[in-house]
């Protein structure tokens, strides 16, 4: 049998690159050759972020695509990125596959692509590659797409995805109820973006209904009890990075590992970790209220404050805040989040409930303070607070701001709730089990690897 060679293509956003790169690292361990495609901009960000690290990028062949981004384009405008990729991607892929066929022992054998880019499958199929889709979020949200026709029929939403009936609904008896206002496209106030995201959900739904193999970063029992998962979906989560730090993690910002040394000095179960992923942004008013709430709580905290997290940063405010909380609070631009969440000093995770963060927190037994920002994060919050009962919602005040008093109140409530912590530890035990012999990760990952290898001659 020859060596499989996977062409891996994430949607070019941080929360998509990280898990697909982790999947790639694992495939390298199973003797796959990997070619990983990044946009030029993201590749430059990753290599620059890694320039001071001891990571070894050599076991993966990184290639770049010119996606037509122009100076001044907003790198967070996902709809615009999507539009650009639609223009350039099919021709680029054809060319890349053609070139690989001309190099001896370099031919691609399979194509692992983000489900958001499922429309590229035809190019790969035509070239005879095995194809696999990758979904970065959970099984519950993956199954929303195929349920859209039923939601329309039941009068929950109209043909454009606009909510007709407010309240809770269930897409199937096995999946916990969701709120119509939490549907992933509903949070976008701009109608063009909302309709674009709705269309994307419909497209994802269409692929779920085919026989196409879909890998999903979740594990058995987490979202649907013990119900049967559709046969074309393989749960291969949790995709946490191994503690072997030499492998590239695909961060767009340089990780500041000094926070681990700081955490080492803090008592067990004492620190609030605050991080809102790679895209969420706070306006200045909310940003200040969060800082003042942390101060008011009197607790220790580690805050991963990404550059640009607040568009209107007030340097003076931040400097005064830092000096007032010195010793008990640490701020870094980008934390080694998985390592942080695994640290015994961490008591809870104030999070935007992005799916990667959700999996990382729950796999480490950390309870959540939920502060969702957009897309499927409101549904993830529902799982955390209502289904698994391992977190609390941060409620908005009348002025649409989470107040400092609400922050203090919820921090105290969560940190003194032993039952919540016990449930979080039970979920961690489930996650641990899933990666052991007989667990869903190992079974499904082996099945996937064997399937990819079986067609290589
Ligand atoms: N992350 C990190 N350091 C930080 C903030 C985030 O390593 O300071 C990582 C986090 O571990 C997760 C990813 O960035 O893997 C964010 O993905 P998620 O799905 O949670 O949110 P998104 O960025 O897509 O909104």
Automatic annotation (TrEMBL):
<keyword id="KW-0808">Transferase</keyword>
<dbReference type="InterPro" id="IPR002213">
    <property type="entry name" value="UDP_glucos_trans"/>
</dbReference>
<protein>
    <submittedName>
        <fullName>UDP-glycosyltransferase 83A1-like</fullName>
    </submittedName>
</protein>
<dbReference type="Pfam" id="PF00201">
    <property type="entry name" value="UDPGT"/>
</dbReference>
<comment type="similarity">
    <text>Belongs to the UDP-glycosyltransferase family.</text>
</comment>
<dbReference type="GO" id="GO:0080044">
    <property type="term" value="F:quercetin 7-O-glucosyltransferase activity"/>
</dbReference>
<dbReference type="GO" id="GO:0080043">
    <property type="term" value="F:quercetin 3-O-glucosyltransferase activity"/>
</dbReference>
């Amino acid at each position: 049998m020859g060596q499989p060679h996977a062409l891996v293509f994430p949607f070019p956003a941080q929360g998509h690159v990280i898990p697909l790169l982790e999947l790639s690292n694992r495939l390298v361990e199973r003797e796959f050759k990997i070619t990983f495609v990044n946009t030029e901009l993201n590749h430059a960000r990753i290599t620059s972020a890694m320039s001071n690290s001891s990571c070894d990028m050599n076991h993966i062949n990184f290639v770049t695509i010119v996606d037509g981004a122009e100076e001044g384009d907003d790198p967070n405008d996902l709809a615009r990125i999507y539009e650009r990729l639609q223009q350039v991607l099919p021709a680029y892929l054809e060319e890349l596959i053609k070139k690989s066929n001309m190099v001896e022992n370099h031919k691609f054998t399979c194509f692992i692509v983000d489900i958001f880019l499922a429309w590229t499958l035809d190019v790969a199929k035509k070239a005879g590659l095995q194809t696999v889709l990758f979904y970065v979020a959970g099984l519950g949200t993956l199954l929303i797409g195929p349920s859209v026709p039923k939601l329309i029929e039941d009068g929950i939403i109209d043909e454009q995805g606009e909510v007709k009936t407010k309240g809770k609904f269930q897409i199937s008896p096995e999946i916990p109820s969701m709120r119509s206002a939490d549907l992933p496209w509903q949070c976008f106030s701009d109608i063009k973006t909302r309709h674009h995201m709705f269309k994307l959900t419909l497209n994802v739904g269409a692929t779920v209904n085919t026989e196409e193999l879909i890998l999903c970063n979740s594990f058995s029992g987490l979202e649907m009890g013990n119900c049967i998962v559709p046969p074309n979906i393989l749960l291969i989560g949790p995709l946490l990075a191994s503690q072997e730090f030499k492998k590239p993690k695909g961060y767009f910002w340089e990780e500041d590992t000094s926070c681990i040394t700081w955490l080492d000095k803090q008592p067990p179960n004492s620190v609030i970790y605050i991080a809102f992923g790679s895209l969420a942004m706070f306006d200045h008013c909310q940003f200040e209220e969060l800082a003042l709430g942390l101060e008011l709580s009197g607790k220790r905290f580690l805050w991963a404050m990404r550059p640009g997290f607040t568009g209107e940063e007030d340097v003076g405010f931040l400097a005064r805040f830092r000096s007032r909380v010195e010793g008990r609070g640490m701020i870094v631009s980008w934390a080694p989040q998985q390592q942080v969440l695994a640290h015994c000093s961490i008591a809870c995770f104030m999070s935007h409930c992005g799916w990667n963060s959700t999996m990382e927190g729950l796999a480490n037994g950390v309870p959540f303070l939920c502060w969702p920002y957009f897309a499927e994060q409101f549904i993830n919050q529902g799982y955390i607070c209502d289904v698994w009962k391992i977190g609390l919602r941060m409620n908005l005040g009348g002025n649409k701001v989470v107040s400092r008093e609400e922050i203090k109140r919820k921090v105290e409530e969560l940190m003194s709730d032993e039952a919540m912590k016990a449930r979080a530890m039970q979920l961690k035990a489930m996650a641990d089990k899933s990666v052991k012999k007989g667990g869903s990760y190992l079974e499904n990952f082996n099945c996937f690897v064997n399937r990819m290898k079986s067609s290589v001659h």
